[in-house]
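Appendix B. Raw example, untouched.
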Amino acid sequence: MDPATLSIIVSAAILTVLFLAGVHIGATLALAGIVGAVVFTGNWASGLNMLLLQTMEVSASYTLMVIPLFIVLGSLASASGVTTDLFACFYRWMGRVSGGVAVSVIATCAGMASITGSSVASAAAMSKIAMPEFRRFRYREDLAVGAIATGGTLSIMIPPSITLVLFALFAEASVGKLLIAGIIPGFMIAILYGLMIYVRCKLNPELGPIGAKFTWKERFASLPPVLPFIFIVGSILTGILTGVWTPVESAAVGVVLVILVGFVRRRLTIRSVFDACIDGVITSASVFMVVIGSLVFGQFLALNGFAEQMVEAVKLMQLAPLTLFILFVIVYFILGCVMEVSSILALTIPLVMPLVVAAGWDPIWFGVIVVSMMEVAAVTPPVGLNLYAVKAAIPDVSLETIYKGSTPYWIMNIVAVFALYVYPDIALYLPRMM
């Protein structure tokens, strides 16, 4: 057996065993890449050098600073009570439409996504804030918990999105362009969620009755508390879009603004800022392990020529672009049912990007497609983390109800994915303006 084939077999065996054993995906990919390189070259130094070089590169990366900054930004925003202010505002303005409480949850999640990259945190926060209102107006539980679980996934697409940053790093694409590319698709998906809720509740009012009635004075009184939030989000996104600052600088600006606003409104303390920084360090360390492991594994695949062989094999199949696209959607859907989001990206992006380039697709556009499928992965059993975040926050609701309630929502994600295929400019219009 030639060294290239043997190295792939050994690497795949290591991946399978360690993944099933529950080893961290970063360590799994790194070890598979190192051992694969050793088998291919017959030299231990080649594998260990890959690990050393990638670790040094990631540790010294200016671009990767955006990840801990976005994590700190999200933690500080949650601690400052932004979620409560947003829900109060949207609920007073949208609560009287069919399914108004659920529509308000989606709108709040879209707003929170503009300042935090954590879908699990958004779902957990909304569970505590919105569920009392759902029960007060006797919403059907599956519709209610589905809105909470799936609304949280908007943080995966709408910047500042750590998932988009990870895709950019694994695919060697522009972080800034990918973040901006997620804006229109993210809000499009939120609108699809809202329309689906409205239509279902209009046809069957028992699913989601209209909410409480508020006077115009009460509605306008809900606007001032969210103005600082709008200013912060506008500063971050406008700065990236116009090139005033890089994504890293925009994240730093966002952190400073949130701290200032939080202290002025007396909602943040030195302790809460310190806790947010600790959260940023711990979470970033785990993310960096995934990044290093994926880069080592990707370097091994390039070394033994597997990526080029795979591209040639797909070319020989002569698949139509739509067929190849549907195949990608099916594969990512299946993976989303059994793997966590960052693990899917780390494992697949080094493999599929050569195919994407060979197909002539824009990597930025493809990144938005993949990240939309990661939204689906976050709410599909048995591994969807948002499902368990909602279950932990609302323990008296069964997992089966949460699974059932999330299904109509993630179907809207699939609709959005094919809309992006037909109209790529939905994702590419804003990046082209940069």
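End of appendix B.
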